[in-house]
Amino acid sequence: MEKIGHRYVIQYFHLKGLSPTNIKAELDSTLEESAPSFTTVKYWVAEFKRGPTSCEDEHRCDRSDRRLQVRELADMVNISKSAVHRILAENLEMRKLCARWVPRLLNNRTKAASRGCFNRVFGDVSQQQS
């Protein structure tokens, strides 16, 4: 059963007057391993008590992806992708971790190097966009 189905069942049992503990027991006896946790049941019962709540997920604001890809950086400063990759990895001592470039060691020397390289590379770009 999907999460949305669990919510409808929780709402149904809540409207019948069952407590979160009893709802959890009913779900466990019916759904066994796929039953939601007690914390989830308790959360949704509290939501339904607050007022008319939809079982659907609320729309979340769209956050733009702030990460820059190596290709985008290369296009912005008109250099090759391999040069951008080399600058990030060797000069700025960053490594790609979970699709993000993160500093390996963040000490004063690497902070200063990162700041200096960023200002050299992006100083002109930020002035062009203004």
Task: Provide a compact summary of the structure.
It comes from Trachymyrmex septentrionalis. With 130 residues, the protein is mainly alpha-helical.
DSSP helical segment count: 6
Give the % helix.
Answer: 55-70%
Q: What proportion of the residues form beta strands (DSSP E)?
A: 5-15%
Uncertain stretches: none
Mean pLDDT: 79
Shape estimate: elongated
Explain what the structure shows.
This protein is mostly helical. Among the domains are: 3-50; 65-95, no CATH class. The chain has helices at residues 3-15, 20-31, 38-50, 70-77, 81-91, 108-129, and strands at residues 94-97, 100-103. The chain has a two-stranded antiparallel ribbon. Pfam families: HTH_48. This is Mos1 transposase HTH domain-containing protein.
How do the helices and strands line up, and which of them pair or pack?
Layout: H1 3-15, H2 20-31, H3 38-50, H4 70-77, H5 81-91, E1 94-97, E2 100-103, H6 108-129
Helix pairs in contact: 1-3, 2-3, 4-5
Name a few traits of the molecule.
130 residues; mainly alpha; two-stranded antiparallel sheet; 6 helices; 6% strand; elongated
